[in-house]
Amino acid sequence: MRFELFIAARYLRAKRRQAVVGIITAISVAGVAVGVASLILALAITNGTRHDLQDRLLASTAHVDLMRTMNDGIRNWRPLTERLRRLPHVTAAAPGLYEPVLISHGAQAGGAMLKGIIPSEERTVSDLLSNLAEGSAAPLSAQANAEDGTSEPTPPLVIGYDLANTLGVKAGDTVMVTSPQGELTPYGLVPKYQRFQVTGIFHSGFYQYDSGYGFIRLTDAQKLFSEPDLVSVISFKVDDLYHADRIGREIEQAAGAGFSTTNWMEQNRELFRALKEEQVVTFIVIGLIVCVAALNILIALTMMVMEKTKDIAVLLSMGVQPGQVRRIFLLQGFLISVIGTAIGLVVGYTLAWAGHHYRFIHLAADVYSLDYLPFAPRLIHGVIVTAVSLGVSLLATLYPSSSAAKVLPAEALRYE
């Protein structure tokens, strides 16, 4: 062990008459540990929130949506879908017909976005039908008409978990769906309504979809909305989701004039920008804890220099260079920072792992769009936090170490 490091380590072990210095040193170590652990947890939460929201969004929605510019629907959608499905970078395509409706069950009612789908194709671009909490989505794949050619009295419907709770329905219950696309009668425009049987309830964990989405067969949607052989959107999955904007432009060009595309990044740009800004602000705010701990290190070393003035004078009179004295107190502050940082990293990553594994912090899904607080710690965050912690702590040692190096032996030992 080098001479300077040996003396620095000895000074950290305060004797009984230096108990105050020892307590301040322990507080400094604890402060650094708390600051580092808080930073690790804060970064893990913001990173986990971002990734969890992104994963749920991508599982629940398509990467690219193709629509008509005039919002008048897509006709001849079958050959168009087949042609666009064969484009480079497109892995799946599915048509859909969206319309807002009112779903009621007894005295309970709630608004929802109802989507008419072809189940076998919809499953290739969305996982919502694969996350059923109750019932089954198999009836959606059945033929739309009965054997005698008449329409089914109660076609199947799959709705979100929170919407089902709002309506107070379970799988097997019948609900009334009212469409604003009404029928023209001698009495004016009358809303169109039809009974549907809830055959399945999906639970994605993403409140936006669980509280306001439902699925019916495309043929049933076209009848309900009076839109024969027409779809409002063609959804796509692509092989590189981070280039969805470029691939979307290629799809738009291949579709021809009168079409436009949106992608998952455009639809959620503000959300992810806010999460990124929140991560930066959180790092700065929680980082102030490390700065407070650095002030404790400065105070502890300053008191240590005052306490060890005679020892420093003796060392200097024995031939120790001022630069070596400076390094003694630099290393002492560095040891405090290293110990505190190591403890903070262990505590922070342990708590982050426990939060990710056990999901013990639950959230109000209607407020945060997530039903639990996600943790996603990254190794790079530990490297950044360690560098910041050690850097700030070393800055705090500059003044007391310089003061120690300027001690004059003759002045310090004059009255000894």
From TrEMBL:
Domain of life from the UniProt record: Bacteria
Family indicated by similarity: Belongs to the ABC-4 integral membrane protein family. LolC/E subfamily.
GO CC annotation, single: plasma membrane protein complex
Subcellular location: Cell membrane
Organism: Paracidobacterium acidisoli
GO-annotated biological processes: lipoprotein localization to outer membrane
UniProt keyword Secreted, yes or no: no
Protein name: ABC transporter permease
InterPro entries: ABC3_permease_C (IPR003838), Asp_de-COase-like_dom_sf (IPR009010), Lipoprotein-release_system (IPR051447), MacB_PCD (IPR025857)
Record keyword Transmembrane present: yes
Keywords assigned: Cell membrane, Membrane, Transmembrane, Transmembrane helix
